[in-house]
Design a protein that fits this description.
- By secondary structure, this protein is an alpha+beta fold.
- The chain has 9 helices and 22 strands.
- The strands form 5 sheets. A 6-stranded antiparallel beta barrel has the order 5-10-8-7-11-12. Strands 2, 3, 18, 19 and 20 form a 5-stranded mixed sheet that branches.
- A hairpin with a 5-residue loop joins strand 16 and strand 17.
- The longest helix has 45 residues.
């Protein structure tokens, strides 16, 4: 009977629990304070009516343990299922990271940036330059620049002037098919009666061809000075033919001018005295020399070196340009400068060969601005084929490096050992090493993956 009551009591507790759970489930929208009170009452009621049982070890215990492990495994699987969205990204990131590391490790590179050693080298030696250089000889070029300067002049002197007019005429030979010769200073008479003459050379007039007379152009000069001989275009005859009775020649050999004769003058004109001209020429020559030297410096390109003291200036005779009234208005002074030039690249290569006495060049010339080439011996531009010069000054040199040797020295060196290798090399002033990937702490062990760069 007691057993039956106990069973009924337990069943009653279960039904009350069920109602309580249903009530809590149904009243999920009730205030929290109400739900908490119900839960407290239910818990108190259960704690008063049901006492906890002591765990007894029976033969069924291993089965419970197995079920516990299965429950743990199920909960783990459930966890992974719920968290798989994040876990798969973590796995992918891990796999990609490993791939990146492997990829960059197989493509390692080392970039070595170096600054070769620089120093100034003093030089003082003589060499030969050749106009037509052979192998292992240094050649030279010659530059010539012509220029002129002028200055306005107001003539200080007055002098008598007698100038004869002149002009160009066309002589026609309608007399014969044979050429006709006219002697020097043959007289021509204009239609107005003015006498003009040929120059100091004789003239041959071509013979006529069919109906076309032979022609030739010559210059005639007035027989007397004076402006009255500055005549307009007109016809001319040869009075000498008529004087000896050669009337047919007189009528068929004649001349015609197409332009006005000019230059005839009789009177006085201003002129530059010898003292005035000498003073002006001294000033012009000084200006001309400065101008020629300046032009030589400007027209010489950066790829050419000027041989100092080789420049020669040739001053020509000055001349006076006159105005329309016979007044001198400008004095002109022409001149030419000639100098010896050497190609810059050819000079550098030649000096490097001279100064690098070993089989392997130790340095190259980086700058020669502090060095000069000076003429050592006299030189005639027209006849001499060789010139001895002196090279003096400072040459800025750069150590010549063999990249293959550098790669072998730096190959597979750790960063800690690079300092020792660097200190042992006097041909490098600075060294900077960058590895790819960045976590590499030593130079690549493959020389093909080592790249030499220069500052």
């Amino acid at each position: 009977m007691d057993q039956q009551k106990r069973i009924n009591s337990i069943e009653g507790i279960k039904r009350r629990k069920k109602r309580t759970r249903n009530a809590r489930s149904f009243r999920h929208d009730t205030p929290d304070s109400f739900i908490d009170k119900k839960e407290v009452k239910t818990q108190n009621f259960i704690s008063k009516k049901v006492k906890p049982k002591k765990r007894a070890v029976t033969k069924k215990t291993p089965t419970k343990l197995l079920q516990s492990r299965q429950n743990y495994l199920s909960s783990s699987i459930s966890f992974f299922k719920t968290q798989w969205f994040w876990l798969r990204y973590i796995i992918w990131i891990f796999v990609i990271s490993i791939g990146i590391v492997i990829f960059f490790n197989t493509r390692e590179k080392t970039y070595i940036t170096i600054r070769p050693h620089h120093e100034y080298m003093s030089v003082d030696t003589n060499i030969m330059l050749h106009k037509n250089p052979q192998e292992d000889e240094l050649g030279f070029d010659i530059i010539a620049i012509h220029d002129e300067v002028s200055i306005p002049v107001i003539a200080e002197g007055i002098r008598d002037v007698q100038k004869k007019s002149s002009g160009v005429v066309t002589i026609y030979n309608n007399y014969s098919t044979e050429p006709q010769r006219l002697l020097a200073e043959t007289r021509f008479q204009s239609a107005g009666g003015k006498i003009f003459k040929l120059g100091t050379d004789e003239v041959i007039i071509p013979g006529k061809q069919q109906d076309s007379p032979g022609t030739i152009q010559v210059r005639l000069y007035a027989d007397q000075s004076g402006s009255e001989y500055n005549i307009d275009s007109t016809d001319f005859t040869i009075p000498g033919f008529k004087e000896v009775g050669l009337n047919e020649k007189y009528n068929t050999i004649y001349a015609v001018s197409e332009e006005r004769f000019s230059g005839g003058y009789s009177g006085t004109e201003p002129y530059i005295t010898d003292i005035q001209k000498q003073t002006l020429e001294e000033e012009l020559r000084k200006r001309l020399q400065e101008r020629l030297v300046l032009r030589l410096g400007h027209e010489k390109t950066d790829q050419l070196m000027l041989v100092k003291e080789s420049a020669q200036i040739d001053i020509q005779d000055s001349y006076l340009t006159t105005g329309s009234g016979g007044n001198g208005d400008t004095l002109v002074q022409p001149g030419t400068i000639i100098a010896v030039l050497v190609g810059l690249d050819e000079f550098i290569f030649y000096i490097e060969d001279v100064l690098n006495t070993g089989e392997i060049p130790e340095f190259i010339i980086d700058d020669i601005n502090d060095a000069s080439i000076t003429q050592y011996t006299e030189f005639d531009f027209e006849s001499d084929d060789a010139l001895e010069v002196t090279i003096q000054g400072e040459l800025f040199t750069e150590s010549l490096l063999d990249e293959d040797i550098l790669k072998q020295k730096f190959n597979n060196q750790s960063f800690d050992d690079l300092g020792v290798v660097f200190n042992s090399m006097n041909t490098i002033d600075r060294l900077h090493v960058v590895t790819r990937p960045f976590w590499k702490k030593k130079v690549s062990n493959n020389v093909d993956n080592i790249y030499i760069l220069y500052e």
